[in-house]
């Protein structure tokens, strides 16, 4: 086990590699990205887009809601279809969601591109790659149809939700031990709020989806399918909110992009 820094040690904060470390930096950045823009597009936008698809389904396609049944239990009607139908099967929501994904993915790539010079490099290494895995899982969920490619869709959902839960775990651990909370007192309540999102909301609901869905498959009880769908609805929002909190963690920061030939 690595030795944790004592309270007397210098504060260790994960940081982007400074441009001075580049061999031949350009005099001016090729592009500047404000952190707020990255958070809005890379964290908040998919949640807004997903809830818009759900809202559209419930408001304008009520006939599908009233007659919705799962292929596994065709005789059981559920008034709360899983998110996958609104974003991956029914039109025009599917087209709208793919457009949201087209905007979201480039910004999300930057969430997994940074380096740390602290003692927890291995955890950071895994964390930033799981962020990319989580993004790929979301893309796969959107591409593989829950009707025609159920196994691939279910596997993609598992990859997405598992990587998201590990990312929350690593994020809170790194946040606690980095010392960043000593920089501003306002980061203390933010850290505890992240822990509530992670350990009190996202974890229980994520685990519950596995149980409720399989219980539904064995019993064809619509209650468990409803619980599964409602948990999905909440997890989607929790995912976006958790990453969007970075806008307060790194207040005033911006990303500079340098492109060289």
TrEMBL record:
InterPro entries in UniProt: CWH43_N, PGAP2
Annotated transmembrane regions: 38-59, 96-114, 126-144, 150-170, 191-216, 222-245
Stored Pfam families: Frag1
Keyword field: Membrane, Transmembrane, Transmembrane helix
Residue ranges of every copy of the CWH43-like N-terminal domain listed in the record: 37-251
Protein origin, superkingdom: Eukaryota
PANTHER family attached to this UniProt entry: FGF RECEPTOR ACTIVATING PROTEIN 1, POST-GPI ATTACHMENT TO PROTEINS FACTOR 2-LIKE
Name assigned to this protein: CWH43-like N-terminal domain-containing protein
Organism: Heterodera trifolii
């Amino acid at each position: 086990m690595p030795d944790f820094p004592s309270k007397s040690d210098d504060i260790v904060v994960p940081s982007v590699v400074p441009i001075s470390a580049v061999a031949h930096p350009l005099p001016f950045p090729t592009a500047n990205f404000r952190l707020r823009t990255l958070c809005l597009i890379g964290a908040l936008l998919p949640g807004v887009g997903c809830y818009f698809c759900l809202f559209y389904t419930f408001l304008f396609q009520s006939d599908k809601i009233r007659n919705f049944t799962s292929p596994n239990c065709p005789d059981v009607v559920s008034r709360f279809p899983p998110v996958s139908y609104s974003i991956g099967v029914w039109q025009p929501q599917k087209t709208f969601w793919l457009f949201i994904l087209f905007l979201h993915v480039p910004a999300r790539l930057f969430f997994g591109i940074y380096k740390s010079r602290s003692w927890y490099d291995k955890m950071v290494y895994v964390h930033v790659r799981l962020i990319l895995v989580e993004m790929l899982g979301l893309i796969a969920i959107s591409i593989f149809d829950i009707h025609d490619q159920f196994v691939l869709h279910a596997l993609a959902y598992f990859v997405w939700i598992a990587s998201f839960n590990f990312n929350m775990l690593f994020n809170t651990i790194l946040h606690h031990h980095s010392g960043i909370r000593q920089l501003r007192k306002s980061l203390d309540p933010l850290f505890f709020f992240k822990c509530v999102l992670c350990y009190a909301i996202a974890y229980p609901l994520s685990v519950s989806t596995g149980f409720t869905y399989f219980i539904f498959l064995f019993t064809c009880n619509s209650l468990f399918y409803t619980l599964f769908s409602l948990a999905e609805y909440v997890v989607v929002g929790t995912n976006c909110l958790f990453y969007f909190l970075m806008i307060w963690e790194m207040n005033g920061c911006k990303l500079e992009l340098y492109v060289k030939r």
